[in-house]
Design a protein that fits this description.
The protein is an alpha+beta fold. The chain has five helices and 15 strands. The strands form three sheets. Strands 5, 6, 7, 8, 11, 12, 13, 14 and 15 form a nine-stranded mixed β-sheet that branches. The relative contact order is 0.15.
Length: 235
């Protein structure tokens, strides 16, 4: 709610709550507390006002390399938000792609929808086109889909398909159903593969298609319906 009213980002709002600077109807709140439009929310004693209605947006972007997936960046790096020309509502990215990765990135101002897609229990599949070099062995092709150890925890089974194989490079299609930090790169590193390029081409039933790098569009009604079905929300 704090983020939706435009006060700050969701991450900053969580920080404010953790630091005891947010009160609900005069009482300190903790992360996970609920609120409604009739509640009085104050930050450092100043009341903030919730929007009663907003136009829900669901967007997709072909993120180019060189952009960080944040609403703002203290290091003054280029942010994906800089590419959302013409979007009047305040939206935020669903999940992340690291600075050197590219491809499909979703945005919304629907918090419940975003949380449903990112929640580990939903197991929403994500497919990446990954170029590795110089080659891939039969053993590595077995290790990747079976799961590898990252920070003491084994990754869930994945789908790995060899799409192209040339001298010095191999293109893989890797599909995972979890979203750990830099997971694809770390999976490849764990089995000794060097990632030369990483591009996400689908999230659940939504595919990147021919969208040009650095551009965005709204999800179609069919894409949105398919995503809601995938996360168990029906139509």
């Amino acid at each position: 709610m704090i983020a939706d009213c435009g006060f700050c980002s969701r991450r900053k709002a969580e920080e404010l709550i953790s630091n005891g600077r947010v009160k609900l109807n005069g009482h300190p709140v903790k992360l996970g507390d609920k609120c409604g439009f009739k509640d009085i929310i104050t930050i450092d004693g100043e009341r903030i006002y919730m929007p009663r209605k907003k136009n829900l947006l669901y967007l997709m972007m072909n993120k180019p390399r060189g952009y960080v997936t944040t609403v703002s960046d203290e290091l003054d790096r280029r942010c994906v938000m800089d590419l959302l020309d013409g979007v009047e509502e305040r939206v935020y990215p669903i999940g992340r792609l690291d600075r050197n990765s590219e491809g499909l990135l979703l945005f919304t101002n629907d918090g419940d929808f975003a949380n449903s897609i990112m929640h580990p229990s939903r197991h929403i599949s994500k497919t990446y086109r990954v170029t590795v070099r110089p080659d891939i062995s039969a053993e590595q092709l077995v290790q990747l889909p079976e799961g590898v150890d990252i920070d003491g925890k084994k990754t869930l089974p994945a789908s790995v398909i060899v799409k192209e194989k040339e001298q010095g490079r191999v293109v893989l299609l890797i599909t995972i159903k979890e979203g750990r930090n830099r997971q694809i790169r770390r999976m490849c590193e764990a089995v000794g593969l060097e990632v030369a390029r990483l591009r996400r081409i689908s999230i659940g039933p939504v595919k990147l298609g021919m969208l040009k790098p650095g551009t965005w569009r709204e999800l179609t009604a069919e894409e949105l319906r398919a995503l809601r079905t995938a996360i168990g929300k029906g139509n």
